[in-house]
Give the backbone structure.
Amino acid sequence: MPAATAIAEAGPVPAPSPPATPPSFGTLALRWYRLNRAGLRATAIGVISLLAFLLVWHLLTTYRVVFFVRFTNVPSPLAVYASFTKAIHDPKFLLHILLSCRRILFGFSLAAVVGVPLGLIMGRFKLVHEIIFPVAEVLRPIPAIAWVPMAIMLWPTNEQSIVFITFLGAFFPILVNTLHGMSLVDPVLVRAAQCLGARERSIFRQVYFPASLPHIFTGLTVGMGVAWVSLIAAEMISGQYGIGYFTWEAYSLVQYADIALGMIAIGVLGLGSSLLIRGAGQLVMPWRLK
Amino acid sequence: MNEILTKAPQGHIEVRNFSLSYESIEGPVQAVTDTQIHVKPGEFVSIVGPSGCGKSTLLNAVAGFLKPTTGIVTVDGERVNGPSAERGMVFQQYSLFPWKTVRENVEFGLKMRGMPRSQRERAARTLLGLAGLEAFEKHYPDKLSGGMKQRVGIVRALATGPKVLLLDEPFGALDAQTRVIMQQILTNMWQRLKISVLFVTHDIDEAIFLSDRVYCMTARPGSIKAEIPIPLERPRQQAMMMSSEFLALRRGLMSLIREESLKAMGGEISDMGMQGLNIELHGHSLADVI
Ligand SMILES: Nc1ncnc2c1ncn2[C@@H]1O[C@H](COP(=O)(O)OP(=O)(O)O)[C@@H](O)[C@H]1O
Ligand SMILES: [Mg+2]
């Protein structure tokens, strides 16, 4: 607009400009393509690479390659697909998935509900930090799977001990990242809030909490990953249901295609849950959208 | 809103027999010593001095972030002991809350005071309008230029109607053109709000252009070396910076500061000597060359 004015002022006889026509569909499509070229490229390469993976898998299994690793008994993609179409009509398979999801939901939610507030309070009150941190540091390096026997002793039902293992897996990454976020809060922002009349409670809610949110969400993402790892391990050892148990059972029953099906289901569920957390993060932190 | 704009002048700052030392491993570090300053209601006072002389220390004590080691700070006869919304502050580092929009940042102090939403929205809009920022009310600080961020910072500090405004090198990180515009905006707002201002800077031109009075500090441990009234007429224009009156004031202040900066650097140079730094310059000693 300023450029247009400048031209109009400079030229002695302003030529009557043609009425602006809306850009045609073709122009719009071309512009969209130019703006999203990098993204389209990445998608295209991603699809090709996935297809190549399937092809290699197919070749290795149909020719039963043995070269250090043995593909003799590994199911082919088509066999896995066949067992998938059967499984989705099988209520038992769906129950496995449902129960795993429920355990993740309980264990992870509990970890978030305990871990985030505890991290916030430990970050704000030195004494709480000094009391709890040493205990957390000693327990943290113990892998959740190592808790399995102890969990079975601690909890009356199998279900509870599996949820407990899942909780433990998610808890420490959430706690540690929340603490880290708290330690990085810019003191100038706290001072700014104080100068504007904020008291302790408001500073906590309006400054420390939102300032730590990015790290809290990092903790939730990592925690979700570890929760799945812990859950699957616990289900393989002590479960009666769940997708981890399904995968292990497939091996015992020599249902080789179901092993791969179980693995893929675990991967898809893990991916889906981390996407959910990322989406929640974008909802809660609109200021971080680019 | 109008109550903020037409409030009777208040905000008498008194700093008496002030000294402040920081604790460090080598013992106490005397940052400011034996300092008396005052700001009359509605007055614009600057503090200039070489870097590290204790300007921020003094200002932070007035804000209530630091306790004087000796002496007393009062505003309208009341002793300062802790930050409060009566003393607005603008920091050199951008200190807007990244998770709040421009308008939410400006509303923060009013929210802390318990003002209902619709009322504080109106107040924030009016103030943003004064600073030419109404178009950016929904932006997050991330998307603003440095000058705009500081403008919002000033508006935010003024929104609660403080008695005094404290600024710590607020334009230090801005380019020369933006700086000049910001000085003009600050002057305008100060004249409309009739508020007392204590302004810290190391820029002599800025101090003279803005102030009714300038305190010049000595090198560390800082104390007041001189107090210079600035009798230039208001409103002041940029062109005034070429007037002989302005230049005379500038020469005076410049020589005062130069002396102190040399003292501050002299300390460093002799420190280097003590570390055994010996420069041979074709037979001349370093002292001869200087
Ligand atoms: N927390 C602190 N601990 C020890 N010394 C400090 C601390 N803060 C500032 N100082 C020292 O006090 C002196 C004054 O600092 P400051 O007020 O920030 O100076 P200015 O704002 O004039 O540059 C400096 O020499 C600085 O090194
Ligand atoms: Mg400073």
Residues B 22, 24, 29, 31, 49, 51-57, 220 surround adenosine-5'-diphosphate (ligand 1) (CB under 6 Å).
